[in-house]
Amino acid sequence: MSYEAFDAEKVKHVPLAHQRRSSLDDGIDLPPRPTKVCGFSIRTVGIAAGLFVLAVVAVVLIVVLLDHKSTSKPDLNPSQRACLVFCHGPILHAVQMAALYADAKTFVDMPLKIDPEDALTKFGKLGAHPTHEQISEFVNTTFDACGSDVLQWIPTDYTDSPAMVNHIVNTSLAQWALDVNKLWLLLGRQVAPDVIANPQRHSLLPLPKPTIVPGGRFRETYYWDTYWIVKGLIACDMLTTAKYLIINLLAEASINGYVPNGARVYYLQRSQPPMLTLILNEYYAATGDLDIIRTSMPQLQTAHEWWMKTGEDGRAVEIPNPSVRRVGVVLAGCGGAHASRCSLLQDPSSPYVLNRYVGTVSEPRPESYTEDMNTASVAGYPEKSPQRGELFRQLRAAAETGWDFSSRCVRLAVSLRVLS
Q: Could you tell me how far CA 118 lies from the centroid of its own chain?
């Protein structure tokens, strides 16, 4: 009988010596029990085999863990992941400096076809100095068309003839008002489904409601623009759309702790004039909707606190108050023979607190990357110099004011080099 044919189940609880005796009684002659293998004892071979198996298992686990680490996503939120491509990094720099598009905003408004980490890996395979053709091919195969993640939306409360037009006596002005009113049909937008499903692939923020955009290259919501848009919507009896825009701003304030410059990840480093309270006030005055005021108080408080933070990057600064007030302090035993123990202390009054616009990042604005780099070059600031970083911060601070750059910013309208 071979070892393979031996029925171990019948003897599994019987001592080995009894197994042999029982087998002999049955007329089965088992071979003698081996005591060594290749000169080593059975015990030694067993220990070595066990150690070998453990080593193999350990190696497999290490390989699996390393592979998981290399392929797992970083511990970042979707906006931070999107910023790996759209806010900073080698892809942004290479593509913008290659000047593939006349408008630098075009590239940062192009959604990714793959996750940002995979895009970085793919770009890294091009080497340290990819050619213009390689960069162009990379963009064409890795990104979708600019603005393809923004969909047209027709406001549901649009009306061809708002009531306010009936109060315009001049027929030419009335017709002009009707023509302007029709623009609402052209400016309504909503995010594509993939912005919600894969926010890490888009610079566009996944706002919960449809919106009204300024138009042209500005395909997204902007903070202080919304104030005048809401006023216009209210004038045109479009209160539902006005409320949608407010809900979007409140969502941004709730998620970020403030309302960013615009609904793009590359705008998250700055804000715009804090108009949120004024926007809500306009809506309340038109509707009497006190519920939205009550529910928005946490966001209003959070946004206000953000603007009142002090420090190097804070939007509030404390200015010492030169005036002082004299405060009488009565000390124990003051008066009579101890009059000298009475004193008047000078206590500075509270400092003035003023708000300001701040640039907190010493890099070019992603949506104006080429323009900012050119401005630094024209100014003669070397790469990685403190002056160049300060220039980029100041450009961001100027953008936070909401006032676009124009000839009013320069002397003789020569160039941004003579900013004053």
A: 18
- Rounded CA-CA distance 96/107 in Å is 8
CA distance 358 to 378: 23
For the cut 50, the answer to whether the pLDDT of residue 196 exceeds it is: yes
Half-sphere exposure of 241 (CA within 13 A, CB side): 28
| Helices 132-142 and 90-97: angle between axes, nearest 10 degrees | 120
- What pLDDT was estimated at residue 66? 54
Please list, in sequence order, all residues whose beta carbon lies within 8 angstroms of the beta carbon of residue 167, skipping any fewer than 6 positions away.
Answer: none
First to last CA, the chain: 103
User: According to the model, what pLDDT value does residue 4 have?
Assistant: 35
- Look at the block and give the residue holding tokens 């706002």: 207
Q: What whole-number distance in Å separates Cα of residue 212 and Cα of residue 189?
A: 6
In angstroms, rounded to a whole number, what is the distance separating the alpha carbons of residues 120 and 84? 8
d(CA 317, CA 420): 22
Residue 198, φ and ψ in degrees, nearest 5: -135, 65
Phi then psi dihedrals of residue 318, to 5 deg = -100, 125
Return the H-helix or E-strand segment holding 47.
Answer: helix 42-71
pLDDT digits (tens, 9 = 90+) for 204-243: 999 999 999 999 999 999 999 999 999 999 999 999 999 9
